[in-house]
Amino acid sequence: MSAPQVRPDPVRGLYDAPLWEYAKQKELRLQRCSDCGEFRYPPGSHCPGCLSENFQWTRLSGRGRVYAWCVFHRQYFPEIPVPNPIVVVHTEEGPIIAANLVGSDPSALRLDLPVEVTFEPVRWASGGEGMIFQWRLVK
Ligand SMILES: [Zn+2]
């Protein structure tokens, strides 16, 4: 088995840290307003719909459709090689989440293609291990 790839550390502030803890368990969870049901992404203190502070970390199905994509040819992080394909996915539950595309050539991407989340173990640049979520095309 090959060593896990190294990735830049994610933001793990008060509201972001649980997202990465759930990812470690291979669960894609986002804050969902306990009062109106709207999802919050990126994580934050208040609901963008009703300003409620109440929420629960709700598991998403991990399925969605291609909303947009791009391929970075400029290297922004020493840990992430280029070309670096990013897919913006409209999840079944509504939130739009960007992550890497894995398992397919980006030339296969088309709008509205079905995708699913996949998790990969990584070593953070500052040390320690974690898990990142990525998108792959549904075969
Ligand atoms: Zn709300």
Compact summary:
With 139 residues, the chain is mostly beta strands. It has one domain (5-137).
What secondary-structure arrangement, pairings included, does this model have?
Blueprint (H helix, E strand, L loop, with lengths): L4 E3 L9 H8 L4 E5 L5 E2 L14 E5 L3 E10 L11 E8 L4 E5 L13 E11 L4 E9 L2
Parallel strand pairs: 1-8
Antiparallel strand pairs: 2-3, 2-4, 5-6, 5-8, 6-7, 8-9
Bound molecules: zinc ion (ZN).
The site of zinc ion has 8 residues, from loops.
Task: Report on this structure.
- This protein is mainly β and 139 residues long.
- The protein has one domain.
- It has one helix and nine strands, in the order βαββββββββ.
- It has one helix spanning 17-24; strands at residues 5-7, 29-33, 39-40, 55-59, 63-72, 84-91, 96-100, 114-124, 129-137.
- The model has no long low-confidence stretch (mean pLDDT 95).
- Residues 33, 35-36, 38, 47, 49-50, 52 line the site of zinc ion.
What ligand molecules are bound, each kind once? zinc ion
Strand/helix succession: EHEEEEEEEE
Span from first to last CA? 25 Å
Average pLDDT score = 95
Compute the number of helices.
1
Flag low-confidence runs: none
Q: Strand share of the residues? A: 35-45%
Shape: globular
Q: Give the class from helix and strand content and strand pairing.
A: mainly beta
Q: How many beta-strand elements?
A: 9
How much helix is in the residues?
Answer: under 10%
Number of domains: 1
Largest sheet data: 6 strands, mixed
Radius of gyration: 16 Å
